[in-house]
Design brief:
The complex is a heterodimer of chains A (661) and B (192). Chain A is mainly beta and 661 residues long. Helix content of chain A is 10%, strand content 61%. Chain A has a 47-stranded antiparallel beta sheet that branches. Chain B has 192 residues and is of the alpha+beta class. Chain B is 52% helix and 10% strand. Chain B contains 7 helices and 5 strands, in the order αβααααββααββ. Classes of the chains: A mainly beta (661), B alpha+beta (192). At the A-B interface, β14, β40, α5, α6 and β43 of A face α1, β1, α5 and α6 of B. β46 of chain A pairs parallel with β1 of chain B, so a sheet runs across the interface.
């Protein structure tokens, strides 16, 4: 330690001489003492020359820089002269303000070129050594198994928001202190556990180790660290990680004024995640992640899952590799390059999946970037299966655009994106601009994929613009299905919470001139001939089942009903055939003519408000007969229980008698 | 002769039965569905004291009166019971029983003024549990947002969503157990 000054006043100085000393006891009294960063008040030393026992008492011990003051040290040791050095071995008591007395065992050595102090308490060792003769000699410090809780108060002043729960430190350091402080050495941290007062930061069983160099003067502090994190759990807000045995950590940091600047921050979890970053903390925070190399699935399970799970993306199966870099400034995202390599993502909840994503995306704010390609082998959106696709992208003046319109195979036809522009730094709701077109989709393939009774036809449509925001996507334009020799038009489609809880789909559907014969034979409801038109307006599906609609279906140009269809219609009413003679007569005829057919149902809150062609008696007419025998079907009940109605319709189309419970 | 008479009778019968009327009796919806308390079903069994019975006018009418003409206020039905809402309800109940109940009691989790949950005191939860609590709160909030939105839409007034949220928030607080924390209108935490 440099600057060692021993000031005395009114003292009896101990003669340093080996040999016989005339006096039996020697007393030394110092009013104050300063030894490097330590200063003290009164120091009392008493030496018994015969036994060599030295008693000492030091009061008012301060270490200003660490904020320690008013400590008291007293003890005794056996003084001996050996190998041209004085050595004192004994025990001492140490008291800090407001704390219990601490008992330690120590040995102090003073020689020509050596001042050393070894202190033991239980398993903990503190060893200091320095060369008192050299003017700028370093202080060698060794700590073994030092419980960090001993420094609770010190840490409380330096880092007030943090509560230290556990931790042990082993370290071997070299300290130099002149006009600046330099610390150089290695350390190992065991079982560090801490909590922040607001619960945002927490750690348990954390371990670390490595080499560290700190240099600090009045203006700048520099830190250099090469080492590794060794296991433990870390929580930062919603980010949680259970660290593996070894994550290499390299840091070059500097503090100038208020903020910290990390010129180099390297993290390497071998085979899982490697990242190199630069960080600015302070007035204008900025993060520049120069390299990220993540290998899945472990990188997801270990690092990303905790951040994605609260957003509903906690159940993903990811394989492959992702590389890239990202720049953030105080103004937000300013650049990124993303390079997936054989990346496959599958949502276990079945919402989406991408297989074999490869290529790159390159974006930077406000400028143009060279073109890149991105491709996938297949993708799935709910049960929509998309074939292979290749996207050509280019960033033009800060907007990432699809260079050529994209066509992706879908159920025997194709879905096209005539344009797609993504502006990552725009305000939410105006980042994506796109249009869609669908053509030639085969309904036979679609119905098979969805598990419905199979029917043929084609599907096409155009969506010139999508609007999105607040978890809703609205599609302008619509789809048209050429099916059952007529058309079904779907417009005003709104998709809400597409990947969230209970996704909801709203639409208006119009049916024009559908061939009832084909329709009823597909759904196995007996046979009804004629042409069906109508609407299902304000349809709302929540979790893919209807919760509301305003439907009206009619066939005004006449046709015929088969006996089975009539049976089916009546079974929906719980089997209310007029018994007796009418039944027997009805059995004679195979088909019955009708002139008009119509039914309406407005569904709300699980209740279907039904009506028909016209009121009739205390019900409403659903079918008006024609010719002989003239049949008429009258519906009774205006407020119909929807779930039961659906059950009965299902049973009627599958040909079984419903069990009414 | 007999043949003619029989044919004639058969013809007469056929003519008589020429008009066939089939009456279809559709299944009736229950006239008055018992107002199942959404919240009661989620947190039932959390303590010994049962939720207070509804003796007076339910809060939804009084709150909505201010913003919606009185004539419509009574129409706002907060107890929409579709299969999806029931499914969300049972998921929330399960989440409440397994994770959230004890953290409500300890004050770590509280009810916000817009009908959602918030982690009020993260430090009181051990590190291992904190991740699960954060996740449960995020999942519950997503479920709540979906329910409030669907109830607003089912009432035919999607623009009522924020009123419905604050009405639900009031109901949650009313049915909260003693010792739970909730936010008042200004956002300050209070204890029941």
């Amino acid at each position: 330690m440099t600057g060692k000054i021993v000031r005395t006043s009114c003292a009896l100085v101990l003669a340093s001489a080996a040999g016989f000393v005339a006096a039996r006891t020697v007393r030394v009294h110092l009013d104050s003492m300063s030894l490097g960063p330590l200063t003290s008040g009164t120091v009392e030393l008493m030496l018994d020359a015969d036994s060599g026992r030295l008693n000492f008492d030091v009061g008012g011990l301060d270490w200003q820089k660490l904020g320690l003051a008013g400590m008291h040290l007293s003890g005794d040791c056996m003084l001996a002269h050996r190998d041209s050095a004085w050595r004192c071995v004994g025990s001492a008591h140490f008291v800090m303000v407001g704390k219990a007395k601490v008992a330690v065992v120590f040995s102090a050595t003073l020689g020509a070129n050596l001042l050393a102090l070894d202190v033991h308490r239980g398993d903990t060792t503190l060893a200091l050594a320095t060369d008192p003769a050299a003017s700028f000699a370093p202080l060698h410090l060794r700590l073994d198994a030092l419980p960090l809780r001993w420094f609770e108060d010190l840490l409380a002043t330096q880092l007030p928001g943090l509560i230290l729960n556990d931790g042990r430190l082993d370290t071997k350091l070299e300290l130099r202190s002149s006009d600046k402080v330099a610390v150089n050495g290695e350390y190992t941290l065991h079982d560090l556990a801490f909590d922040s007062r607001d619960g945002v930061l927490a750690g348990a069983k954390l371990g670390a180790g490595g080499k560290i160099t700190i240099s600090a003067d009045s203006k700048i502090t520099k830190v250099h660290h090469e080492g590794a994190l060794r296991g433990g759990e870390l929580l930062l807000g919603s980010f949680y990680v259970a660290l593996p045995e070894r994550v290499v950590l390299g840091v070059d940091a500097m503090q100038e004024g208020v903020g910290w600047r990390f010129d180099r921050l390297t993290l390497d979890d071998p085979g899982v995640l490697r990242a190199e970053a630069k960080l600015h903390l302070g007035a204008k925070p900025a993060v520049q992640i120069d390299t990220v190399d993540a290998v899945f699935p472990v990188a997801y399970e270990r690092y990303a899952k905790s951040l994605l799970a609260p957003r509903g993306l906690g159940e993903l199966e990811i394989r492959g590799r992702l590389r890239g870099n990202v720049d953030w400034t105080a103004n937000g995202l300013s650049a990124f390059i993303v390079r997936p390599q054989n990346l496959s993502v599958k949502d276990k909840a079945g919402r989406f999946a991408i297989d074999d994503l490869n290529g790159a995306l390159d974006w930077r704010r406000d400028v143009s970037r060279p073109a890149t390609k991105l491709s996938w082998h297949s993708a799935e959106l709910y049960r929509l299966a998309l074939g292979p696709a290749e996207f050509d992208w280019r960033t033009n003046a800060g907007a990432l655009q699809l260079i050529t319109p994209l066509s992706v195979p879908l159920f025997g036809g194709a879905i096209e994106l005539p344009r797609f522009t993504w502006q990552p730094d725009a305000a939410s709701g105006s980042r994506i601009d796109t249009a869609l077109a669908v053509h030639g989709v085969e309904l036979a393939t679609v119905t098979r994929a969805l598990g419905w009774p199979e029917f043929g036809g084609t599907l096409g449509g155009a969506v010139p613009q999508i609007h999105y925001g607040g978890d809703r996507i609205k599609f302008d334009g619509g789809l048209s299905l050429a099916v059952f020799d007529g058309t079904i038009d779907v417009t005003n489609v709104v998709f809400e919470r597409p990947f969230g809880v209970a996704p909801s789909l709203a639409a208006d559907i119009a049916l024009t001139n559908l061939d009832l014969q084909r329709l009823t034979s597909t759904f196995d409801f007996g046979e009804i001939t004629g042409r069906l038109s109508g609407k299902v307006a304000s349809l709302r599906l929540v979790d893919w089942s209807p919760v509301a609609f305003d439907a009206e279906l009619h066939a005004f140009n006449g046709g015929r009903l088969s006996q089975r269809a009539v049976n089916g219609l009546s079974s929906v009413g719980g089997g209310g055939f007029a018994a007796g003679l009418q039944t027997r007569i009805l059995r004679i005829f195979d088909t019955f003519g009708y002139s008009r057919l119509g039914v309406s149902c407005r569904l709300a809150n699980n209740v279907c408000h039904m009506s028909g062609l016209a009121p009739s008696g205390n019900g409403y007419a659903i079918v008006e007969g024609r010719g002989l025998p003239r049949i008429s079907v009258i519906g009774h009940q205006q407020h119909v229980d929807w779930p039961t109605l659906v059950e009965r319709l299902k049973a009627a189309t599958s040909g079984t008698t419903p069990v009414i419970q | 002769m007999r043949k003619i008479i029989l044919t004639g009778l058969a013809l007469a019968f056929t003519l008589l039965s020429a008009c066939v009327t089939i009456n279809v009796y559709f299944p009736a919806a229950a006239a008055e569905k018992a107002a199942e308390q959404f919240i009661g079903k989620v947190i039932e069994g959390a303590s010994d004291t049962p939720p207070p019975p509804e003796e007076k006018k339910p809060p939804q009418s009084s709150l909505l009166d201010f913003v919606i003409p009185a004539a419509h206020a009574a129409d706002a039905d907060l107890n929409i019971q579709t299969p999806v809402i029931r499914e969300i309800q049972s998921r929330m109940k399960q989440r409440f029983d397994s994770v959230l109940a004890k953290h409500f009691g300890s004050g770590a989790v509280g009810l916000t003024k817009d009908g959602l949950l918030a982690v009020r005191d993260a430090a009181s939860v051990s590190l291992a549990e904190r991740v699960a609590v954060n996740q449960a709160v995020a999942d519950d909030n997503r479920d709540r947002a979906a329910v409030y939105r669907e109830i607003a839409v089912a009432n035919g007034h999607p623009d009522w969503e924020s009123q419905i949220r604050s009405t639900f928030a009031k109901q949650w607080v009313e049915q909260a157990r003693p010792g739970w924390y909730y936010q008042d209108a200004a956002g300050a935490w209070k204890r029941k």
